[in-house]
From TrEMBL:
InterPro entries linked to this entry: Na/H_Antiport_NhaC-like_C, NhaC_Na-H+_Antiporter
MF term (GO), any: antiporter activity
Organism: Lacrimispora saccharolytica (strain ATCC 35040 / DSM 2544 / NRCC 2533 / WM1)
Protein name, entry field: Na+/H+ antiporter NhaC-like protein
Domain of life: Bacteria
Family: Belongs to the NhaC Na(+)/H(+) (TC 2.A.35) antiporter family.
Keyword hit for Transmembrane helix: yes
Transmembrane segments: 7-28, 77-95, 115-142, 154-177, 197-216, 237-264, 292-314, 370-388, 408-427
Length: 435
């Protein structure tokens, strides 16, 4: 019989140092902005390079560099970097060819002032469900949200929270989302069945969020009127939605959205061909910090995993599971802590999936329900982490700290509450029991 792989809390030291330093700086200084994420992550990476396995042969610095580079070059992270760059380019093009103004003014024309925030949330839900990516949704809607905040006087951090929350709706539920694919494959269930169980779990969160948003007062009262807009200018957004609905990959979807914006902008005389190159470059440079942070985090997590940090989490969360309800709570805690550690909900689901399946089989939990729990909790936490991609992009496009947006991602907070409630009450029964 093979010996069970042992974890070590020493492997979690980079994460512990980062969180301690980040939180301590924020509380002592009164502002989390005083600890730039790049510096905090760099310090944590330095700690990761100091790690050694107790009682085992010393790992050379060269080997650690190799591990770090492989982690930072993970295909999922490189895809995230590409999406970061495309997000910046799309925002820059949409802003310069007035797509943002047009779509905001259409919303202001159609929706009464009190319904602007619920309307923005629903638009984001439809878009993220269609695209299957929270990153693409944030990049497409955040510029609209920033302009909407300026026109209505709504706190830009609050409206950013609306966008991030709506983005995580689709990340959690979309049929083409990486998290859905990972959750259903690791649990060997169909996407349709997982969606049915998952949607019931988040439906209360959606309804409560819409009600809460409808009561948020506008800083400026927007009189009912027809605002100037050009329907042609919203074509880049239409391209993204339509192509996403037919199942095209997010990379060509974003690329065609950018291309359509460039063509329309040049046709309307907003910029010429040479100027468009500068616009694309400017947008991409806005995302350089976020891209580098993603690579650094990937490398740090690889070292944490090598030195037993991730296995330590798995050990502590799964060794005392004795009932279906306890099993479900353990699965939720496991994938949540993995996501907090890795800032990647897809990787978290892949790592937790096999263990979650074993717990489900041992405790008689329906795997469709397990797939829903894995996706729900990992997506919710990914929308709440100030060092994860969604809040990094939202903060970068809004020009504010990701931590300023975090308290306003109400939908993700409601997802967590709804998920715990459904585990405790064991509903819906047809998707597994909770003893």
């Amino acid at each position: 019989m093979s010996e069970k792989k042992k974890g070590s809390i020493i492997g979690l030291m980079p994460l512990i140092v980062f969180l301690t330093l980040y939180l301590a700086t924020g509380f002592v200084s009164g502002s989390f902005d005083n600890m730039p994420l790049m510096i905090g992550i760099s310090i944590a990476c330095f700690v990761a390079f100091l790690l050694q396995k107790p009682g085992e042969e010393k790992v050379s610095f060269t080997d650690k560099v190799t591990i770090f580079c492989k982690g930072g070059g993970d295909d999922t992270l490189i895809l995230m970097v590409i999406i970061f760059l495309l997000a910046g380019a799309f925002y820059s093009v949409a802003n310069n060819m007035h797509a943002v103004d047009s779509i905001v003014n259409i919303g202001l024309t159609i929706l009464p002032t009190r319904m602007l925030l619920p309307g923005l949330f629903l638009i984001g839900c439809v878009l993220s469900f269609s695209m299957g990516t929270s990153m693409g949704t944030v990049s497409a809607l955040m510029p609209v949200a920033v302009d909407l905040a300026a026109k209505t006087g709504v706190n830009v951090a609050l409206i950013g929270g609306v966008v991030v929350g709506s983005a995580m709706f689709g990340d959690n539920l979309s049929f083409i989302s990486d998290t859905t694919i990972a959750a259903t494959r690791t649990q060997e269930v169909s996407m349709k069945d997982k969606f049915r169980a998952n949607f019931l779990m988040v439906l209360p969160a959606v309804i409560i969020n819409l009600v809460l948003l409808s009561f948020v007062p506008m800083g400026k009262e927007v009189a009912a009127q027809v605002y100037d807009f050009n329907v042609i200018n919203i074509l880049p957004y239409a391209v993204i939605i339509v192509l996403s609905l037919i199942g095209m990959n997010v990379i060509p979807v974003m690329g065609l959205g950018i291309l359509s914006g460039l063509v329309i902008g040049m046709m309307h005389g907003d910029f010429n061909l040479l100027e468009s190159l500068g616009i694309l470059h400017e947008g991409m440079t806005w995302m350089e910090d976020m891209s580098l942070i993603a690579v650094l985090v990937g490398g740090m997590v690889a070292l944490m995993k090598y030195f037993g940090g991730i296995d330590y989490l798995l050990e502590k969360l799964t060794n005392k599971t004795k009932s279906a309800r306890g099993g479900e709570l353990s699965i939720a805690a496991l994938v949540s802590l993995l996501d907090i550690s890795t800032t990647n909900n897809t990787i978290s689901i892949i790592a937790a999936g096999p263990i979650a399946r074993n717990i489900a089989d041992a405790q008689g939990i329906d795997r469709r329900r397990v797939a829903s729990i894995l996706d729900l909790f990992s997506s919710a936490f990914n929308g709440l982490l100030p060092y994860a991609g969604q809040l990094l992009v939202a903060g970068g496009l809004a020009g504010i700290s990701p931590t300023a947006i975090m308290p306003y991602v109400w939908y993700c907070l409601l997802m967590l509450a709804s998920g715990v409630l459904f585990i405790v009450i064991g509903f819906p029964k047809q998707f597994g029991s909770s003893k």
